[in-house]
Amino acid sequence: MIDVFIKAQSYYLPKKVLTNEELIKEFPKWTVEKVSKKVGINSRHIADKNETVGDMAYQASEKLFSENNIDKSEIDFILLCTQTPDYFLPTTACTLQSRLGLSTSCGALDFNLGCSGYVYGLSLAKGLINGNMAKNVLLITSEAYSKHMHSKDKKNRTIFGDAATATIVSTTGNLKIGNFSFGTDGRGSENLIVKTGAFKFHDMMDFDENEAIEKDHFPNNLYMNGAEVFKFSMDTVPKLVKDTLEKNALSKDDIDQFIFHQANKFMLDTLKTISKISNEKFIYSIDDVGNTVSSTIPIALNRAIKENKVNKKDKVLLAGFGVGYSWAGCVLECQ
Ligand SMILES: CC(C)(COP(=O)(O)OP(=O)(O)OC[C@H]1O[C@@H](n2cnc3c(N)ncnc32)[C@H](O)[C@@H]1OP(=O)(O)O)[C@@H](O)C(=O)NCCC(=O)NCCS
Q1: Which domains are seen in the chain, by residue range?
Q2: Which residues does the UniProt record annotate as the domain Beta-ketoacyl-[acyl-carrier-protein] synthase III C-terminal (predicted)?
């Protein structure tokens, strides 16, 4: 096994910012303070009507290339994590190969995961490099849950934001990728789901805030049973942390920063408490972006490095969890 690293990283946020003040105008029964206090989000970025996940992925990747002087010709694999692709087919990763002007020798595929997606992506990239199938993997997360959201769905519209991130995983770099822990429990699939729009269910329903959203689903619309997802996270994440530490032969004290999927502040506060992690070692990066699904961890990591919260020799534990249910953890070591 050769060492594999995160070599460079960037992120892109759509121009349009949706503040709590603007949102609350649509939901006068809620207040700006209520949203800010509960979910810790004051604003989020929303993709333009004509802006797709492919467009956001393109912007994040071009930013990555220009900010880090990356030689595009060296990229030999694209992995794109999304649940809001441009098309059913072809994969958005294939379209990006040509849009970004990457070599036709590049492998390219999309993978459909949500909040655990970045950690899974790192593992896939590491596996490709260790298996001598690639040398420089472009790992993209790009998600626009706003496109799955009903305009009257205040519970979800307050939480989720759109974003894309781009990471180069390579044989050199400053963040060494350690060992992984994975998990899946498909029994939770109904609790966070876009049920219609694909091929199993075809019925379309009118939106009824009090009735239908709890029971049924709308064309392409996101349904989340927040209480169940919360319960799952409380049960799973402490075990995920423990298993990730064990897989890396580390103890909790060896970790300098914990970067959990930024689901919402209520969830993060509770997870921090039950996992017994101190404030200084626990990253929050949600206030101005919201829950950006597979992009929360790379955005938080990028910011933590820029803000010198992660420094040389530090060990960072990443934990992604959510839709599926699916979860994954790993440790990064800053060189
Ligand atoms: C959504 C979630 C924040 C709701 O919290 P909760 O305490 O379980 O919610 P409840 O329905 O019991 O409502 C409690 C209060 O919170 C409020 N609330 C619920 N969702 C809210 C939101 N998005 N913003 C602000 N307040 C919210 C309710 O209106 C209620 O207020 P009230 O006491 O004034 O009536 C919580 O269930 C959660 O964190 N779930 C996980 C969801 C998530 O982040 N998923 C992302 C994928 S991992």
Answers
A1: 5-172 (3.40.47.10), 179-334 (3.40.47.10)
A2: 245-333
**Residue 81 is a catalytic residue:** no
Which residue CA neighbors atom 48 of ligand 1 most closely? Answer: 322
261 in catalytic set: yes
The residue contributing the CA closest to ligand 1 atom 12 is: 227
Question: Nearest to residue 216, comparing CAs of 250, 187, 247, 193?
Answer: 193
Cα–Cα distance for residue pair 38/224, rounded to 1 Å:
17
Q: Percent of the chain, pLDDT > 90? A: 88
DSSP string, 253-293: GG-SEEEE----HHHHHHHHHHTT--GGGB----TTT-B-G
Task: List the one residue out of 290, 296, 299, 295 whose CA is nearest residue 38.
Answer: 290
- Residues lining ligand 1, judged by CB closer than 6 Å? 34-35, 38-39, 115, 155, 158-159, 224, 226-227, 229-230, 263-264, 266-267, 291, 322
Nearest CA to ligand 1 atom 20: 155
Q: Please give the single-letter amino acid code of residue 270.
A: T
Report the nearest atom of ligand 1 relative to the CA of 159.
Answer: 23
Q: Count other Cβ atoms within 10 Å, centred on residue 23.
A: 18
Query: What percentage of residues in the chain have a pLDDT greater than 70?
Result: 95
| pLDDT confidence bin for 195, thresholds 50/70/90 | confident
94 is catalytic: no
CB 205 within 8 A of CB 40: no
Closest CA to 299 of 45, 20, 5: 45
The answer, yes or no, to whether residue 208 has pLDDT greater than 90, is no
Look up residue 229 and give its amino acid. V
The torsion defined by the Cα of 220, 114, 85 and 90, in degrees rounded to 10, comes to -120
